[in-house]
């Protein structure tokens, strides 16, 4: 079962290619409404057709040969959260919640300004994914 961060048909396709038999869409439905699922189904169907796959089963697991272990990941360059385009920030707090719930507490908002303590950042990038306006990006260094 693929869950977590699925908000586009491309996300669902990636989970299926990684071996998922089904995907669950929750937060995106809460934000966009249940109609998002219809669009995701249409997008996935069009993709499968373009790739000449006979169905979802033909996509399932195709990426497994390219997926390595966590230990095999390069540690040569690390990325850390960085605040860019501060004028776009609406102080929604999604980054703060994501970082707090991930256990790092590296992000706070003071006087409607996002503050990132890079010494606490582990580089997971969740904050950049939940930021609706692209204010937080991942950059090398610490």
What does this protein structure show overall?
With 142 residues, the protein is an alpha+beta fold. It has 2 domains: 2-66, no CATH class; 79-140, Alpha-Beta Plaits. 35% of the residues lie in helices and 15% in strands. It has 6 helices and 6 strands; from the N terminus they run βαβαααβαββαβ. It has a two-stranded parallel ribbon. Strands 3-6 form a two-stranded antiparallel sheet. A hairpin with a 2-residue loop joins β4 (107-110) and β5. α1 crosses α3. It is globular and about 55 Å long. The relative contact order is 0.14.
Using only C-alpha atoms, the radius of gyration works out to 18 Å
Strand order of the largest sheet: 1-2
Q: SSE order in H/E notation? A: EHEHHHEHEEHE
Strand content: 15-25%
Structural class: alpha+beta
Uncertain runs are none
Number of helices: 6
Major beta sheet summary:
2 strands, parallel
**From the structure provided, what is the oligomeric state, counting identical versus distinct chains?**
single chain
- Categorize the overall geometry: globular
**Strand count:** 6
Cα(first) to Cα(last) distance is: 35 Å
What integer is the average pLDDT? 92
Number of domains: 2
Helicity level, as a percent range? 25-40%
């Amino acid at each position: 079962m693929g869950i977590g961060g699925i908000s586009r048909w491309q996300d669902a396709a990636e989970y299926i290619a990684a071996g998922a038999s089904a995907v669950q869409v929750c937060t995106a439905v809460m934000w966009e409404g249940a109609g998002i699922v219809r669009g995701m189904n249409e997008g996935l169907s069009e993709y499968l057709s373009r790739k000449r796959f006979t169905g979802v089963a033909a996509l399932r697991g195709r990426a497994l040969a390219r997926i390595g272990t966590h230990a095999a990941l390069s540690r040569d360059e690390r990325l850390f959260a960085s605040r860019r385009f501060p004028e776009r920030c609406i102080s929604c707090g999604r980054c703060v919640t994501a970082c707090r719930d991930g256990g790092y507490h590296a992000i706070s908002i003071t006087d409607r300004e996002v503050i990132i303590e890079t010494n606490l950042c582990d580089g997971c990038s969740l904050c950049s994914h939940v930021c609706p306006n692209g204010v937080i990006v991942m950059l090398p260094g610490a």
